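Hey all, quick one. A colleague (J.T.) asked me to put the shikimate-3-phosphate job into the tracker so the inputs and the structure tokens live in one place instead of scattered across chat threads. No bug as far as I know, just bookkeeping. Sequence used:
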Amino acid sequence: MTASLQGLSIFLIGMMGSGKSTVGKVLAHHLNYRFFDSDVLIEKVAQQSITEIFQDQGETAFREIETQILRELSACLRSVIATGGGVVLEQMNWSHLRQGLIIWLDVPIDLLVQRLEKDRTRPLLQQGDLRAKLTTLLDQRKALYGEADLIISLQAGQSPEQLAELILERIPLVLKSGEGDLRSQNN
Ligand code: S3P
């Protein structure tokens, strides 16, 4: 598997609560890759929590830091990168994401609601009805997430380990269909 990826990094995209970090860590372990969580790096660079960045500097400033971090991560080989759910919104981010293999973890709204009910760390979800908010965000982003090289739709009850295995099974198929030319697409 690692041989067929030839060091190509993996970017996990998808909604908040879709399990990018959890699945990403398992995947990185299987591939003997490094794991990065872009939100964690943003917090380190800003020396503030995501909530504080949104409060003090606003979403636009957050998105600028996010792009800067993504640019740096896109230079890394042999890495699995869990991105923030809104990374797909900025056109410039796509040129960074396209440096690797992009995988969308597509998770049903019901499950996202269940996972995020008690969450206090995502500023975009702290006001209003959670389901309505998630539905609106997903409607706005679905087509963008759909630009991924590989789409993994979560079935009820699948564990992170099972998802990672499924991803590992599917990667060679995507690399084949891309005729080994994924890195030059849309750059
Ligand atoms: C966001 C997702 C969050 C974080 C920020 C904004 C979004 O990351 O970057 O709260 O716009 O969807 P996760 O997807 O890791 O929760």
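Adding what we noticed when we looked at it: Residues 109 and 132 are 10 Å apart (CA to CA). The two ends are 25 Å apart (CA to CA).
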